[in-house]
């Protein structure tokens, strides 16, 4: 099943389910009890939103060996995790804003895991029981600030730096699906999830040994090699086989770098 989060006109955002090119309303929530209503709303008549409003976003660095090598970094012995703020989330067709503080913003196409129920100390064999489904994500990164700071919070946290969508796919087997990224139609990234250093189940187990995973939380599972720059006017597409295409435009944000005194 595909769950969408959408808005029609000025109505409040709502969850629905997708059947071909039509949406059916959901009474309740995909993260609890719900009832599906008839799919009678044309997809073209609504605005798709980010399919989830996460409480926390746990991202994984260097989870593809080729990506680690392209940055001259070692593959970690344990998952290398960091957090992105929920305020960085945008939906399909929303614009990625290039902040004035950075001169090198890059795309990172990723498979995102959507947690469906709360869990702590989850065994890898039971990880699927805690997953609602999967969506596409773009872990947008200010690469120059990442190198400058030495840690990743600032470079990963700007508003609009976590596009998600277009929906949550509940029937995906994440063991071997293709991830690709195109910028203005040019293929930049392509790899299979079978190349991940740590599998989805291993990531769920490891992260839940540190923190409780709650319904709606996201795990961004890492990006393959081929990351590259985003410039004003670009259109970036992240495609996850079996899920769909997440498309966003890129524009320069207004503003200036604030002065910070020591």
Structural class by SSE content: mainly beta
CATH superfamily of the largest domain: Fumarylacetoacetase-like, C-terminal domain
Helix content: under 10%
The main sheet comes to: 12 strands, mixed
Q: How far do the termini sit from each other? A: 53 Å
Task: Name its key features.
19 strands; globular; twelve-stranded mixed sheet; mainly beta; single chain; 2 domains; 262 residues
What does this protein structure show overall?
- With about 260 residues, this protein is mostly beta strands.
- The protein folds into 2 domains: about 1-50; about 55-250, Fumarylacetoacetase-like, C-terminal domain (Fumarylacetoacetate hydrolase, domain 2, Alpha-Beta Complex).
- The protein has 4 helices and 19 strands.
- It has helices at about 65-70, 145-150, 155, 200-210; strands at about 1-5, 15-20, 20-30, 35-40, 45-50, 55-60, 80-85, 90, 95-100, 105, 110-115, 130-140, 140, 160-170, 180-185, 185-190, 220, 235-240, 245-250.
- Strands 1, 2, 3, 4, 5, 6, 7, 8, 11, 12, 14 and 17 form a 12-stranded mixed β-sheet that branches.
- The longest helix is centred in the C-terminal third of the chain and has 9 residues, at about 200-210.
Brief synopsis:
By secondary structure, this protein is mostly beta strands. The chain has 4 helices and 19 strands. The strands form 3 sheets. Strands 1, 2, 3, 4, 5, 6, 7, 8, 11, 12, 14 and 17 form a 12-stranded mixed sheet that branches. Strands 9-19-18-15-16 form a 5-stranded mixed sheet, with no helix packed on it. Strands 10-13 form a two-stranded antiparallel sheet.
């Amino acid at each position: 099943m595909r769950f969408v989060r959408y808005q029609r006109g000025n109505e409040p955002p709502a969850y629905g389910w997708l059947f071909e090119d039509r949406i059916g309303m959901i009474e309740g929530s995909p993260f609890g009890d719900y009832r599906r209503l008839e799919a009678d709303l044309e997809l073209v008549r609504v605005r798709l939103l980010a399919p989830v409003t996460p409480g926390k976003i746990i991202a994984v660095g260097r989870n593809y060996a080729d990506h680690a090598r392209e940055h001259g970094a070692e593959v970690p012995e344990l998952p290398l995790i960091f957090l992105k703020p929920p305020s960085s989330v945008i939906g399909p067709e929303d614009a990625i804003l290039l902040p004035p503080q950075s001169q090198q913003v890059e795309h990172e196409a990723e498979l995102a895991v959507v947690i469906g129920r709360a869990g702590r100390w989850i065994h890898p064999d039971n990880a699927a029981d805690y997953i609602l489904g999967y969506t596409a994500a773009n872990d947008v990164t200010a690469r120059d600030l990442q190198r400058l700071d030495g840690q990743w919070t600032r470079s990963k946290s700007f508003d609009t730096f976590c596009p998600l969508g277009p929906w949550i796919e509940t029937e995906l087997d994440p063991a071997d699906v293709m991830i690709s990224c195109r910028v203005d139609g040019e293929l930049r990234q392509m790899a299979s999830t079978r190349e991940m250093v740590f599998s989805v189940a291993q990531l769920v187990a490891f992260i839940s040994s540190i923190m409780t995973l709650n319904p709606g939380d996201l795990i961004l599972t890492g990006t393959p090699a081929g990351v590259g720059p985003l410039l004003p006017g670009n259109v970036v597409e992240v495609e996850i086989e079996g899920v769909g295409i997440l498309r966003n435009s890129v524009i320069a944000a207004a503003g200036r770098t604030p002065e910070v005194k020591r």
